[in-house]
Amino acid sequence: MTPGSSGGHGLRRRTLLGSGVGAALAGSAAVLTAAGPAGPVAAAAEQTSPGSRTVAFYGDRQAGVTTPPQTHTRWVALDLARGSDLADLRRVLRMWTQDLARITQGVPPLADHTPELTLDPAHLSVTVGLGRSAFARLGRLDLAPPWLRELPSFATDALQDRWSGGDVVLQIGSSSLEATARVQRALVRAAGSTTTPRWTQAGHRGPSPEPSWATQRNAFGQVDGTVQPAVDGLDDDLLWRDASSGAWEHASTLVLRRVAMNLDTWEQLDPVAKEAAIGRRLADGAPLTGGGERTPPDLPATDADGLTVIDPSSHMARAMPREPWERFLRRPYSFEVPGADDVGTLTRAQTARSAHGLLFAAYCADAHRQYVPVQRRLAEADLLNIWTVTTGSTLVAVLPGVHPGEALGERVLDG
Length: 415
Description:
This protein is α+β, with helices and mostly antiparallel strands. The chain contains 13 helices and 11 strands. The strands form 2 sheets. Strands 1, 2, 3, 4, 7, 8, 9, 10 and 11 form a 9-stranded antiparallel beta sheet that branches. Strands 5-6 form a two-stranded antiparallel sheet. Strand 5 (216-217) and strand 6 form a beta hairpin. Helix 1 packs across helix 2 and helix 2 packs parallel to helix 4 (86-103). It is globular. The protein starts with 7 loop residues before the first helix and ends in a 17-residue tail after the last strand.
């Protein structure tokens, strides 16, 4: 049965959710999550003792933004099918809310045929966002937040439709690769004929027994993600919408960029040339002006010949914030296309089809104020542009969180 089919348990479940019985099921799902597991499946779940391997689902804000990055993450974009209306979208979000309240805590979703696979959530978090195109497709741009505007084009872009856009975007993170695949399948199946798949992009980080904000190395060997806003509340104004946003309070913005990387020509460089392009030492990520990874760079410093130690066109120099608000939270992941072979001297056009690259996920309160100025500087003169091409771009509003009895998007789609 295809994800868009309407037979079997999917039809019965969607029919029930549109009735009073559906409301009863939703209520029992919330009670089950709040009160704890019950019954044979729950007994098995207790035996696995997931404990700290669960990520809280309910709260003012969705998990997956300030949640420490898991080893595996996949982003899934869906488009609303022709003829879908606001009620259809709200129904899908309500179903997803009920499923996620259970599956993130190690309790199988309703009508699950293989509940054994859900018992260990492995730090699972799922984050749901809506693109401006969703509101346009529904003819309800009046419901779209004013800060959800499409990104401008950048000089280094070679965007492809197969990696860009999307009405609804899911970010599925877990310590288990199997869990991300399974949850993707379950959520797409639950959406049924209301949506059609647009793209899936899967990324990975260095192996770690627990999710962590520790910096990672990308495919260039570069330490990535050194300068970050605080995730303990001190920089909430950079990450989340405040009360002035009304129903969108506690929302955020996701910018996802797919960056193809030319490893062949990069690997022909010596370490000195690589460090000059990055602006940091490869060994430990410290700026070329000295210190450790967290040491602020001395951008004006010059060497004995009067040349700046850190090239003004290096990646770090261009990415450094010029204003206090030019900061955003990054969750970078590497990607590799299985079975592809791009060894050889690649042209820029061929680099756009490279099998290796970076899924650059940035979260912020306002992408146009925080992200766009930095990306413009990078597009203008970043030395790394010689070896990279941006082939995908997506911007979505991350929905506010939910509390028991609520559904994702309920407040912002109340139109």
